[in-house]
Fold these 2 entries.
Entry 1:
Amino acid sequence: MWTVVHRERVYAYTGARDFDPALPTVVFVHGAPNDHSVWSLQSRYFAHHRRNVLAIDLPGHGRSAGAPLESVECIGEWIVALLDAMGVERAALVGHSLGALATLDAAARHGSRVSRMALLGPAVPMPVADALLDAAKQNDHAAFELITGWSFSPGDLLGGNRLPGVWMAGNALRLMERSRPGVLYTDLLACHRYAGGLDAAAKVACPSLLVIGERDQMAVPANAAALIEALADRRVVTLSECGHSMMAEAPDGVLDALRAFLLFDASAALTPRGVLL
Amino acid sequence: MSKPKNTHFDTLSLHAGARPDPATGARATPIYQSASFVFPDSDHAAALFNMERAGHVYSRISNPTCAVLEERISALEGGVGAIAVASGQAALHLAIATLLDSGSHIVASRALYGGSHNLLDFTLPRFGITTSFVDPRDLDAWKSAIRPQTRLLFGETLGNPGLDVLDIPRVASLAHDHGLPLLVDSTFTTPYLLRPFEHGADLVYHSATKFLSGHGVVIGGLLVDSGRFDWTSSDKFPTLTEPYTGFHDMIFAEESTTAAFLLRARREGIRDFGACMAPMTAFQILQGIETLPLRMQRHVDNTRKIVAFLTAHPFVAAVGYPELTTHPDHHLAQKLLPLGCGAVFSFSIRGTRDQGRRFIESLRIFSHLANVGDAKSLVIHPASTTHFRVSAEKLRAAGIDEGTIRLSVGLENADDLIEDLSRALYLASKAPGA
């Protein structure tokens, strides 16, 4: 569906369902420089299980118009503006990577608007290697290749997708190639410069879920430790043998963690790839 | 800066898509010879059917062994995914049926495999889909054949029978200027010699029966999506951009930014037309692909030696191989096919139809049959077999003469193959003419 936020057209995938104001809403926020399609399995599940789903394309990404937002704080504010545009008073936010940081910031600044937050592949801080930033700044294709190489666990980089017939690494690369020039650099710089993560975490009042990839090289698990400590009402799921592209690498592990957190009691059963800590 | 450490082609040939079997530790990809797969619970079942979870339901739609093959060819081609089907012809049909409706039009190279030509020229018109055939070397002909109803451009990397090299960059550019995808049959070259996506093609298919397998024991096809084509940029592809009532009003291009074509092909084409690949077939093709880089290099090495031998032989009138400076696409081949132009080519003897037959019958190592891409060397004489009802005049129009011989060079010792050809050429030259 389409809506308008800050006078720019914005696309949100809804799982082929009409938006129902009577239902709770879950907003899915992608990472750099992706779009809504990284959530296709998980978002579709919630759209067909008593939730409104807004799997958004951030400004300048995917189908959405406008320029990419230059800071995590701006993206967090934009998410709340999206809720305003949709007439949604409170929503659960689910973010991955850059989207996780924006979700965290939105939940900290606008506690009354966020019922729950799930952070997938989070790290605070989330530093980006100079080599990657330089390549992204030059719109060098090597930046996409570097991210692809670092985004999967060693096993998943060679395949074995749970979604039949889709080559995960090639699909991830191709999705990034579709991003507009400069978008990746803007997104990575926003991650790199975000310094308020721990302060934000201390202000978050809603229940939170952190989903960590055991083999994540983009947001290494060690960089989530302080974030976990700073969150008051938290549960953590570590996906074994999983890298940063967890929605593709462990689609059921991610979905089951989200189901347990968003639909059911947190003790709901998880798949063998998911370990509830 | 750091250089990306991309996995090499040889390694992908062995490992892409596969991992040791988590249930048994089996290192080889298991043959999941099962028609269907158990649902853990009802909610899981519903989620699988509604594409909320990933997994296998029924082996017509997907199968774990076939999925390994699909990932492997995707990795080798540099695509986003693939669908394994019953044959190369099934792959071509699936591509067309996914994108085109009655009233749609295709522009295709006229230098096609006969089976593809049959489908386009004789069968699809019955379903309202028509094709204009053009000289693959004539870009103006491609351009002038495009109509408002055109939805696809199609050619072979190496055309049949003259090995016309498809100028993929220019034809793809033309296609994209008109908002159309380019589909390429890459059977003769395999991704070892040419990766069409790197030159602008949007969809690639293979008869996996040929070089990908190498052993000549299965029939199979693979359809690969580059994930690059923007189906949403026009209203030409409603099968991908409008709700599909046959699958919960899914809009495939919204569901997947990169793999909308594959989604529709699997959720409709394989589901409804049913030309799926058997898991045993997928396993056997995987065994072949493991050695693809080694085999293709040997195929090319042997072919080069045989081309050199035939070119110098007094009873040979012409050899059509794009590495020869006499071939009209020599320069294009140097650009697109630096590792070699494959192992299938035609040559003409200075003789009659009967002498051509005598040549074939005198061969001892080359097998006389209608296939290419086997590990064993193969030969066919079109004028006395596939085209035996065709007049000499029509043969010439198709780029064939009464003395044309097509070889598929295998992996035997090149000296033995040359000896075989040498003896047969001698006997044919001494045979009486027609």
Entry 2:
Amino acid sequence: MRRARLLSSVLAWARRSGAALRRLAGKSGAALRRLAGGSGAASRRLWASRGVAGVWLRSAATWSARRLAAVLAAVRTAIGSLAGSRPGRALLRGPLGRAVAGATAPVRRIWRRSLQFRVVSITLVLSAVLVGAFGWLMASTITQGLLEAKVSTARKQVVKGGEYAADQLKGVTQSNDPALLTTIPAVVAQLANSPEEGGREVVMLSVDDSLRLNQQASDPAAYSLLRAPELAGLRRLVGNDGQVAYQLVTADPDRGGKRPWLVLGTRVDSYGQPLELYYLFPLDDEVTAADLVRTTVIVTGAALVALLALVAALVTGLVVRPVRLAARTAQRLSAGMLEQRMLVRGEDDLAQLATSFNQMAASLQRHIERLEEMSRLQRRFTSDVSHELRTPLTTVRMAADLIFGGRAAFDPAVARSAELLQTELDRFEDLLTDLLEISRFDAGFAMLDAEPTDLVPTVRRVVEALTPLAVRAGSVLDLWVPVMPMIAEVDGRRVERILRNLVGNAVEHGEGRPVQVTLASNPTSVAITVRDHGVGLRPGEEKLVFNRFWRADPSRARQTGGTGLGLSISLEDARLHGGWLESWGEPGQGAVFRLTLPVRTGDQVVASPLPLVPDAVVPDAVVPDDGGPGRSNAPGDGGRR
Amino acid sequence: MVDDDPALAEMLGIVLRSEGFLPSFVADGERALAAFREARPDIVLLDLMLPGMSGIDVCRAIRAESGLPIVMLTAKIDTVDVVLGLESGADDYVVKPFKPKELVARMRARLRRGEDVAPELLTVGPTGNQITIDVPAHTVTRDGVEVKLTPLEFDLLVALGRKPRQVFTREVLLEQVWGYRHAADTRLVNVHVQRLRAKIEPDPERPEIVLTVRGVGYKAGMG
């Protein structure tokens, strides 16, 4: 799409530029004719037929414009035909387009990346266009002036020469007067050798070409040029209409090489026979002058453009350098080098930028350091609280143990109290441990202690440890593990904790039905799913299961008395590994919890080797996609430990 | 027993005495070393957080003088703290709040030694880099020169050396050497293997006697 639009805009541009150039060329030609022409309309007509005539002098002004227009037209036609034909379009979009794109890729990259490059190129292009236009205007004006002067001098000479010839031929009254044979060569020789201007050629002809003399031209080549078809138009104007007219030709009337000449003619009326007198002026001086003008314009224009580009480069460099410096400093800052500052020089806008930047950096540094300090304090506090709480708890624990051990000797109420004390102390301990663990995650200093671990024995161990609980709940734990070792870089302690939580939950909410634990892997990740067939999860509870202290049904009696933090901690543990912990559930269909961990520490999980939604589920269930880390897709079942 | 909390110390005293131990108590780290020299205990229980000298420093000082079992009592379960404690020379650690039975079991496991008296001489390590273990005498020699090991390090080496070529998982080692029933913290094994290597390997960075089997555990290197 984009390429097609580009193509059409290029075409339109080419069309416009071509037309503009043609207009310009036409205008300059018209101006020249008005100034130089004899009696307007006729000479304009002559100019209209200048197709065959050389246009050397005018070319100084119009050559480049017309040439450019021609090139543009050619390019336009080429592109147009390419774009018009279907294979052509395919070629433009396909291999050709790709080749062009490939070749220009480095330039486009610099264009995108460097402001300086962009500014310099834009300056270069715009100044080149401007300077080109001015130069062209200047050159064409000067050239026109030169030609104008030449034509006006030449006209005077021709008119004078015509009068002189008419004067000489006064005596001739008949067309076959033998005096003609002597007078005309004399007149031609006289006019050709007149000292007014050197190098010109003179030709005299009869209008009907009946005159054949040895010396009716100063040079035979000039005579044959006048009789050539390319000057027929001029001769008609002069001979038939009696005007003073001129034409420009590229010819070689004096055998000095082909070059531009000005041919100017007038009619000499004699009694015997109408004659035409032509002067041929070599335009050597004018061409030299025009060339000089053109060279000067091109050289100075190019120098000016280069200078402008240089200035643009310098100026943008002045602005861009501090900006680049700021970018580099910002990069260093973001990489953690908080001491980095910019050098402030002067009081200009850039110095202000540097000052503001430094202020920002200082403020950032202050904040980061304060946060680091707070994190350190928090960590210290957690550690201290942990210690301060744990020591008395240890004493209470031991005392309770002692009392519990001797409860047989107490009366029933005290004995029961000892039992309650014991079980509630267990809960208190669990809660304290979980709270400290969560606060460690919140403070952001939970660390992954990963090493290559075979997950098969890990899963087996957890299942074995929880089998007594499952037996009490009446559930069967089905274990599906591969025969081969499944080694992944994980923190074994954390993975075991996650699995204990998941399997414990499944048993607690499994309603005595079997619980399946499945382990599988792909080249980049390992996954463990825990499936129960209990009450399942209601819609909308999918995110809630991982919330702290969340319980599905507050009215429901607590069975095992979990802390309510188990799944939150498990989710944090999974995230710490760069893995996912997700859940799925349907009312009455049970629930699935899936843990997916990357095989290598630091990798991200892209796909899980196990499905989250079990195959056997009725298809009206909304099938969740494989979400990102920690995304839980399904309603949760009852209160989670 | 080095702990600054008098209630805990008293309670521990009650529990330990009921289990047949004869505990003596020190409340701060600075006096711990003197008390240790005076009482000549069979096992040291050491709190990590102590006024005066920190538990880590006390542990290091005791370890410099003796290879007797040291069990750390700690409320910190962060890896850094645990590893630091173990690296300073503790053989085992118990996290507060612990159950009294658990502590006693650990202590007994550390004290259970010298029971196997059958003469047994083990050789481990590749040819040219072998060490000899005299199990009843509790000595390890390399080229006739004795290498000083703590009893725990010795037990670890014997466990590996008795079944060369067999790979021991960390859990199995925990059970055999430390006496854990259920898997606990495998960092214990890692730290002690590092310490053992530092003593018996010519180049601990490239171990030849105690080898790591990636993803599984450790085994003894053979010729």
